[in-house]
Amino acid sequence: MPIIDTPWQGDAAAALETLRSRGTDESAIAWLPGAVLGHARLAVIDVNGGRQPMLTPDGRYTLVFNGEIYNYVQLRDELAALGHKFSTHSDTETLLYDYAQWGGAVVERLDGMFAFAVWDSAERTLFAARDRLGIKPLFYSSAAGFALASTPRVI
Q: What's the rounded Cα separation, in Å, for the pair 65 and 44?
């Protein structure tokens, strides 16, 4: 649930609460300059390590992600060979570093059902994508700033 430069950023906690039924294990919000990213998690892979929103160690990229990346082990091995260090065993962290390495081209590398958004705090840009079949939905509004969510009732 990214909310970018909107007058309703202060309502992020209430908006996130509407997702509680879809992610019952935990929820969290990252308050960043110009952006708020929230996530309600249903823990499947790496229950303890896949917490979101997830940030790169340098704080540049922040990811929120819904779904499952089926080929994350192969992608993780490739990233490790390039020198990336992992602190979890989650597909979330793999996706975050995939984006940091390949930018938007990462979508072509993914096998799975997913919807995700990455905030780049250095460039102040948001990248969002979903799986090719739209199994994991993305809804957005650009009425005043930008808001993105997995269900329209959040927006």
A: 12
Residue for token pair 């998690």: 41
Phi, psi of 121 (to 5 degrees): -70, -25
- Based on the structure, what is the number of domains in the chain? 1
pTM of the model: 0.82
Q: What is the CA radius of gyration of the chain?
A: 15
Q: Strand 125-130 and strand 139-141: pairing?
A: unpaired
- Whats the size of the chain, residue-wise? 155
Angle at 20 between CA 14 and CA 23, to 5 degrees: 140
Q: pLDDT tens for residues 14-65?
A: 565 555 555 555 666 777 787 877 776 555 565 566 677 999 999 999 999 9
Residue 126 exposure: Cα atoms within 13 Å on the Cβ side:
23
Q: What's the CA dihedral at 68, 120, 55, 90 to 10 degrees?
A: 20
Which CATH number fits the domain that encloses residue 147?
A: 3.60.20.10
> Of 71, 8, 20, which Cα lies nearest the Cα of 45?
71
The domain containing residue 39 runs over which residues? 2-154
Among 73, 62, 72, which residue's Cα sits nearest to residue 35? 62
